[in-house]
Write a structure and sequence with these properties.
The structure holds 2 protein chains of 2 kinds. The relative contact order of chain A is 0.25. The termini of chain A are close together. Chain A has a 4-stranded mixed β-sheet, covered by helices on one side. By secondary structure, chain A is of the alpha+beta class. Chain A has a single domain, classed as Translation Initiation Factor IF3 (2-Layer Sandwich), CATH 3.30.110. Chain A has 2 helices and 4 strands; from the N terminus they run βαβαββ. Chain B is of the alpha/beta class. Chain B has one domain (4-138): Hypothetical Protein Ychn, Chain: A, CATH 3.40.1260.10. Chain B has 6 helices and 5 strands. Chain B has helices at residues 14-29, 40-44, 64-75, 81-90, 99-105, 123-130; strands at 4-9, 33-38, 94-98, 119-121, 135-138. Chain B has a 5-stranded parallel β-sheet, with helices on both faces. In chain B, helix 1 (14-29) packs parallel to helix 4. The longest helix of chain B has 16 residues, at 14-29. The two termini of chain B are 25 Å apart. The mean pLDDT of chain B is 96. Classes of the chains: A alpha+beta, B alpha/beta. Chain A binds chain B through residues 10-15, 17-18, 20-22, 25, 45, 48-49, 52-53, and chain B through 22, 25-26, 28-31, 76-79, 84, 87, 90-91.
Chain lengths: 75, 139
Protein backbone atom coordinates (compact mmCIF):
# COMPACT_ATOMS: atom_id res chain seq x y z
CA UNK A 1 0.00 0.00 0.00
CA UNK A 2 1.42 3.33 -0.99
CA UNK A 3 1.23 6.49 1.05
CA UNK A 4 0.70 9.89 -0.57
CA UNK A 5 1.14 13.21 1.16
CA UNK A 6 -0.25 16.46 -0.19
CA UNK A 7 0.66 19.82 1.24
CA UNK A 8 -1.95 22.54 0.75
CA UNK A 9 -0.84 24.72 3.66
CA UNK A 10 -1.51 28.37 2.79
CA UNK A 11 -3.93 27.47 -0.02
CA UNK A 12 -7.51 28.72 0.03
CA UNK A 13 -10.90 27.64 -1.40
CA UNK A 14 -11.28 25.54 -3.54
CA UNK A 15 -7.63 24.38 -3.85
CA UNK A 16 -7.39 22.06 -0.77
CA UNK A 17 -10.55 20.20 -1.81
CA UNK A 18 -9.47 20.01 -5.47
CA UNK A 19 -5.91 18.85 -4.69
CA UNK A 20 -7.29 16.23 -2.31
CA UNK A 21 -9.59 14.92 -5.04
CA UNK A 22 -6.72 14.85 -7.55
CA UNK A 23 -4.62 12.78 -5.14
CA UNK A 24 -7.51 10.40 -4.46
CA UNK A 25 -7.96 9.92 -8.21
CA UNK A 26 -4.30 9.01 -8.60
CA UNK A 27 -4.24 6.68 -5.58
CA UNK A 28 -5.09 2.99 -5.80
CA UNK A 29 -7.71 1.35 -3.57
CA UNK A 30 -6.21 0.78 -0.12
CA UNK A 31 -3.63 3.58 -0.45
CA UNK A 32 -3.29 6.17 2.29
CA UNK A 33 -3.68 9.86 1.36
CA UNK A 34 -2.53 12.42 3.91
CA UNK A 35 -3.62 16.04 3.41
CA UNK A 36 -1.89 18.85 5.31
CA UNK A 37 -3.55 22.25 5.28
CA UNK A 38 -4.43 25.49 7.01
CA UNK A 39 -7.71 26.55 5.33
CA UNK A 40 -10.36 26.25 8.11
CA UNK A 41 -13.43 25.32 6.00
CA UNK A 42 -11.54 22.55 4.18
CA UNK A 43 -10.93 20.78 7.49
CA UNK A 44 -14.63 19.91 7.61
CA UNK A 45 -15.31 19.87 3.86
CA UNK A 46 -12.65 17.29 2.95
CA UNK A 47 -14.23 14.73 5.34
CA UNK A 48 -17.67 15.66 3.89
CA UNK A 49 -16.38 14.95 0.39
CA UNK A 50 -14.85 11.64 1.53
CA UNK A 51 -18.12 10.58 3.11
CA UNK A 52 -20.01 11.43 -0.09
CA UNK A 53 -17.57 9.30 -2.08
CA UNK A 54 -17.74 6.42 0.41
CA UNK A 55 -14.10 6.77 1.53
CA UNK A 56 -12.90 6.21 5.05
CA UNK A 57 -11.39 9.10 7.02
CA UNK A 58 -8.90 7.56 9.44
CA UNK A 59 -8.18 10.67 11.40
CA UNK A 60 -8.35 14.47 11.62
CA UNK A 61 -5.59 15.99 13.70
CA UNK A 62 -4.80 19.55 14.75
CA UNK A 63 -1.19 20.65 14.51
CA UNK A 64 0.76 23.75 15.53
CA UNK A 65 -1.78 24.84 18.19
CA UNK A 66 -4.70 24.53 15.78
CA UNK A 67 -3.09 26.59 13.01
CA UNK A 68 -2.67 23.51 10.83
CA UNK A 69 -4.57 20.29 10.33
CA UNK A 70 -3.82 16.86 8.94
CA UNK A 71 -6.41 14.51 7.49
CA UNK A 72 -5.72 10.83 6.79
CA UNK A 73 -7.88 9.12 4.18
CA UNK A 74 -8.01 5.50 3.04
CA UNK A 75 -8.68 5.30 -0.71
CA UNK B 1 -24.86 7.58 -13.47
CA UNK B 2 -23.61 9.65 -10.55
CA UNK B 3 -24.82 12.97 -9.22
CA UNK B 4 -24.28 15.98 -11.46
CA UNK B 5 -23.97 19.79 -11.37
CA UNK B 6 -24.70 21.77 -14.53
CA UNK B 7 -23.85 25.47 -14.65
CA UNK B 8 -24.79 28.03 -17.31
CA UNK B 9 -22.21 30.80 -17.39
CA UNK B 10 -23.92 33.72 -19.15
CA UNK B 11 -21.84 36.44 -17.54
CA UNK B 12 -18.31 37.28 -18.56
CA UNK B 13 -17.61 39.22 -15.35
CA UNK B 14 -14.44 38.09 -13.63
CA UNK B 15 -16.04 37.49 -10.24
CA UNK B 16 -18.84 35.42 -11.80
CA UNK B 17 -16.42 33.32 -13.84
CA UNK B 18 -14.72 32.62 -10.49
CA UNK B 19 -18.06 31.53 -9.00
CA UNK B 20 -18.75 29.15 -11.88
CA UNK B 21 -15.30 27.55 -11.81
CA UNK B 22 -15.14 27.31 -8.02
CA UNK B 23 -18.57 25.66 -7.81
CA UNK B 24 -17.72 23.38 -10.74
CA UNK B 25 -14.45 22.31 -9.12
CA UNK B 26 -16.20 21.88 -5.76
CA UNK B 27 -18.77 19.55 -7.32
CA UNK B 28 -16.04 17.46 -8.98
CA UNK B 29 -13.97 17.40 -5.79
CA UNK B 30 -16.97 16.10 -3.86
CA UNK B 31 -17.48 13.25 -6.27
CA UNK B 32 -20.08 14.70 -8.64
CA UNK B 33 -19.94 15.15 -12.39
CA UNK B 34 -19.89 18.78 -13.54
CA UNK B 35 -20.37 20.73 -16.72
CA UNK B 36 -20.29 24.43 -17.53
CA UNK B 37 -22.18 25.80 -20.52
CA UNK B 38 -20.45 28.98 -21.72
CA UNK B 39 -22.87 31.33 -23.45
CA UNK B 40 -23.14 35.03 -24.39
CA UNK B 41 -20.70 37.17 -22.36
CA UNK B 42 -19.44 34.02 -20.69
CA UNK B 43 -18.33 32.63 -24.05
CA UNK B 44 -16.00 35.64 -24.49
CA UNK B 45 -13.94 34.23 -21.64
CA UNK B 46 -13.15 31.14 -23.74
CA UNK B 47 -11.38 33.35 -26.31
CA UNK B 48 -7.61 32.95 -26.48
CA UNK B 49 -6.18 35.15 -23.71
CA UNK B 50 -9.69 36.07 -22.58
CA UNK B 51 -10.20 34.04 -19.40
CA UNK B 52 -8.92 36.67 -16.97
CA UNK B 53 -10.12 39.68 -19.03
CA UNK B 54 -13.61 40.14 -17.61
CA UNK B 55 -14.58 43.27 -15.67
CA UNK B 56 -15.81 43.18 -12.09
CA UNK B 57 -19.63 42.84 -11.92
CA UNK B 58 -19.82 45.72 -9.42
CA UNK B 59 -17.47 48.60 -8.63
CA UNK B 60 -15.31 47.93 -11.68
CA UNK B 61 -14.56 51.69 -11.83
CA UNK B 62 -12.78 51.57 -15.22
CA UNK B 63 -10.56 48.80 -13.96
CA UNK B 64 -9.51 50.37 -10.67
CA UNK B 65 -11.94 48.20 -8.69
CA UNK B 66 -10.80 45.07 -10.47
CA UNK B 67 -7.16 45.96 -9.83
CA UNK B 68 -7.87 46.41 -6.13
CA UNK B 69 -9.82 43.16 -5.85
CA UNK B 70 -7.10 41.32 -7.80
CA UNK B 71 -4.49 42.62 -5.35
CA UNK B 72 -6.50 41.39 -2.40
CA UNK B 73 -7.06 38.04 -4.09
CA UNK B 74 -3.31 37.64 -4.63
CA UNK B 75 -2.73 38.45 -0.98
CA UNK B 76 -5.28 35.80 0.03
CA UNK B 77 -3.51 33.35 -2.32
CA UNK B 78 -6.62 32.76 -4.49
CA UNK B 79 -5.93 30.50 -7.49
CA UNK B 80 -5.96 32.04 -10.98
CA UNK B 81 -8.85 31.30 -13.35
CA UNK B 82 -6.38 29.53 -15.64
CA UNK B 83 -5.45 27.15 -12.81
CA UNK B 84 -9.09 26.59 -11.86
CA UNK B 85 -9.92 25.80 -15.48
CA UNK B 86 -7.04 23.31 -15.72
CA UNK B 87 -8.12 21.67 -12.44
CA UNK B 88 -11.71 21.50 -13.71
CA UNK B 89 -10.58 19.73 -16.86
CA UNK B 90 -8.19 17.42 -15.00
CA UNK B 91 -10.97 16.27 -12.67
CA UNK B 92 -13.16 15.42 -15.66
CA UNK B 93 -15.30 18.57 -15.91
CA UNK B 94 -17.03 19.21 -19.21
CA UNK B 95 -17.07 22.52 -21.11
CA UNK B 96 -19.84 23.24 -23.59
CA UNK B 97 -19.58 26.27 -25.90
CA UNK B 98 -22.73 27.94 -27.24
CA UNK B 99 -22.81 27.93 -31.04
CA UNK B 100 -25.54 30.56 -31.34
CA UNK B 101 -23.41 33.05 -29.40
CA UNK B 102 -20.55 32.34 -31.79
CA UNK B 103 -22.86 33.13 -34.71
CA UNK B 104 -24.22 36.34 -33.14
CA UNK B 105 -20.82 37.63 -32.07
CA UNK B 106 -19.05 36.41 -35.20
CA UNK B 107 -16.63 34.22 -33.27
CA UNK B 108 -14.82 31.39 -35.04
CA UNK B 109 -13.76 28.15 -33.35
CA UNK B 110 -10.09 28.93 -33.92
CA UNK B 111 -10.44 32.10 -31.82
CA UNK B 112 -11.41 29.99 -28.80
CA UNK B 113 -9.40 27.74 -26.48
CA UNK B 114 -10.64 24.65 -28.32
CA UNK B 115 -8.52 22.35 -26.12
CA UNK B 116 -10.90 23.17 -23.27
CA UNK B 117 -14.14 22.62 -25.22
CA UNK B 118 -15.69 19.13 -25.03
CA UNK B 119 -18.84 19.95 -26.93
CA UNK B 120 -20.25 22.65 -29.24
CA UNK B 121 -23.91 22.95 -28.46
CA UNK B 122 -27.20 24.79 -28.23
CA UNK B 123 -30.09 24.81 -25.75
CA UNK B 124 -30.73 21.10 -26.36
CA UNK B 125 -27.26 20.28 -25.03
CA UNK B 126 -27.96 22.23 -21.85
CA UNK B 127 -31.36 20.58 -21.28
CA UNK B 128 -29.92 17.18 -22.08
CA UNK B 129 -27.21 17.75 -19.43
CA UNK B 130 -29.51 19.41 -16.90
CA UNK B 131 -32.59 17.17 -16.99
CA UNK B 132 -30.98 14.56 -14.76
CA UNK B 133 -28.76 16.99 -12.83
CA UNK B 134 -29.03 17.46 -9.06
CA UNK B 135 -27.76 21.04 -9.19
CA UNK B 136 -28.21 23.53 -12.00
CA UNK B 137 -27.26 27.19 -11.83
CA UNK B 138 -27.49 30.21 -14.12
CA UNK B 139 -24.66 32.63 -13.48
Amino acid sequence: MAEMEIDVRGETCPVPLVECRKALKKASPGDLVIVKGTHPASKKEIPMACEAMGLEVLGIEDKKEGKEWEIKIRR
Amino acid sequence: MGEKAVIVLHSGDMDKVYSALIIGNGALAMGMEASIYFTFWGLMRLKKGGLEKGPLSKMHMLGLGKWMVKKRMDKANVASLERLMNDFKELGGKIIACEMTMEIMGIKKEELRTEWVDEWGAVGSYIHEARDANITLFI
